[in-house]
Write a structure and sequence with these properties.
The protein is α/β, with parallel strands linked by helices. The protein folds into two domains: 1-23 and 357-421, no CATH class; 36-355, Divalent-metal-dependent TIM barrel enzymes (TIM Barrel, Alpha-Beta Barrel). The chain has 14 helices and ten strands. It has an eight-stranded parallel barrel with strand order 1-2-3-4-6-8-9-10, surrounded by five helices. A two-stranded antiparallel sheet has the order 5-7. Strand 1 (37-40), helix 3 (74-86) and strand 2 (93-97) form a beta-alpha-beta unit. Helix 1 (4-20) crosses helix 13 (386-396) and helix 5 (154-178) packs parallel to helix 6. The relative contact order is 0.15. The structure holds L-rhamnitol and zinc ion (ZN). L-rhamnitol (RNT) binds next to loops.
């Protein structure tokens, strides 16, 4: 990697090139530095959680791979997150799942309280991070039937409603403590492997459960509720209760956030195209930025066309304050800290590229009906000296530029991860 003098020189040249196109690079970097990405804790331990030491079970999601060194305790996970965050430019957020509670294994999910997350909140506070939260409606004996909030068994349904309620209390406590609203997301795996004859009953029960969970008005400065749909999962191929239409309608009617997960639609559908549609009707949304390869495989996010399109839609639409950007991928076949670094750095790169777009020129062409210029310019943008700005941004934000972060990961692997057996 080049020294900081070279980075600066290259940056100055890049800046000139961008200004020829009417783009203010410094303004773009300043805006970028205010965008917080919510890092999902579950990349660090393959969606395991620390309740019983058991791995992810059920819910139709799956982490594959046997890469050594996964976090076995909350302390290890926090240490790994510290390392990952040091490789990522900017101040970000932590997205925690309820199953990462520190209860010594003897508090049921419907009895969780904010105090079971004290260490997480203290850690976030010490690092100047906001927090987001998720109920965990899977990896639990009471979810083994494949139904939770939509269950016809009242005991089961009530248990999960109670879980949803305590999670909102916990989220609100996190938001209050950290001075930034905690987006508390709800995703359930309820559905059928094969063709059901009653699609209506479970959806009516899910609506009832959600109404019970969201009954209590909460302060929006502390808590923002979000609901996440899905097209299918492993074991729920034929029917998912919480479909897109279901939650979109629910979110509009109840003024909750809608969570758009990039892997939760038909493979030819993209969430970049959904952002402006749903934000015509909703105040705010949550994104689960992920990468599906042939299915909702939750691969590590890369700088793909779709990732760039997501960032462009957020920036072009002026939606930066209405879109909460969360990540949702898990890969157990590569170094888990590298996975966080790669995915998060890519998300930030995509946002920077979007902020550096010569948008005035592009809009001009489009409104004049000059689609030739629009296409030509969009393609020319792809080879603008973006990398020079990115390296400079990383250096300025005290994060490693270029591929140097990988050396840090290797050192940490040698000194810390390889000792976890
Ligand atoms: C599953 C959903 C959900 C989970 C996390 C762990 O398909 O995407 O968001 O990935 O809650
Ligand atoms: Zn998701």
């Amino acid at each position: 990697m080049s020294d900081s003098k070279t980075i600066e020189k290259t940056y100055e040249l890049a800046k000139e090139r961008y200004s020829e196109l009417g783009v203010d690079v410094d303004k773009a970097m300043k805006r970028l530095s205010k965008i917080a990405i919510s890092l999902h804790c579950w990349q660090g331990d393959d969606v395991g959680g620390f309740e019983s030491g058991d791995a992810l079970s059920g819910g139709g999601i799956m982490a594959t791979g046997t890469y050594p060194g996964k976090a076995r305790t909350a302390d290890e996970l926090r240490a790994d997150l510290d390392k990952a965050l040091s490789l990522i430019p900017g101040k970000h957020r932590l997205n925690l799942h309820a199953m990462y509670a520190e209860t010594k294994g003897n508090v049921e999910r419907n009895e969780l309280e904010p105090e079971h997350f004290t260490s997480w909140i203290d850690w976030a506070k010490a690092n100047g991070l906001g927090m987001d939260f998720n109920g965990t409606f899977f990896s639990h004996p009471k979810a083994d039937s494949g139904f939770t909030l939509a269950s016809a068994d009242e005991d089961i349904r009530t248990f999960w409603v109670e879980h949803g309620i305590v999670c909102r209390t916990i989220g609100a406590a996190m938001g209050k403590e950290l001075g930034t609203p905690c987006v508390t997301n709800l995703w359930i795996a309820d559905g059928y492997k094969d063709i059901p004859v009653d699609r209506k009953g479970p959806r009516e029960r899910l609506k009832k459960s959600l109404d019970e969970i969201f009954a209590k008005q909460m302060n929006h400065r502390h808590l923002l509720d979000a609901v996440e749909s899905k097209l299918f999962g492993i074991g729920s191929e034929s029917y998912v209760v919480g479909s897109h239409e279901f939650y979109l309608s629910y979110a509009i009617e109840n003024k909750t956030l809608l969570c758009l997960d990039a892997g939760h639609y038909h493979p030819t559908e993209v969430i970049s195209d959904k952002i402006s549609s749903v934000l015509t009707f909703l105040d705010e949304i949550l994104l689960h930025v992920s990468r599906g390869v042939r299915w909702d495989s939750d691969h590590v996010v890369i700088l793909s066309d779709e990732l760039l399109a997501i960032a462009q839609e957020i920036v072009r639409g002026g939606y930066l304050d209405r879109v909460h950007i969360g990540l949702d991928f898990f890969d157990a076949s590569i170094n888990r800290i590298a996975a966080w670094a790669i995915g998060t750095r890519c998300m930030i790169k995509a946002l920077l590229m979007a902020l550096l777009e010569p948008i005035d020129k592009l809009r001009e062409a489009e409104s004049a009906g000059d689609y030739t210029t629009r296409l030509a310019m969009l393609e020319e943008c792809k080879t603008l000296p973006f990398g020079a700005v990115w390296d400079y941004y990383c250096t300025k934000m005290d994060a490693p530029a270029g591929e140097t972060w990988l050396d840090d990961v290797r050192t940490y692997e040698r000194d810390v991860l390889s000792k976890r057996r």
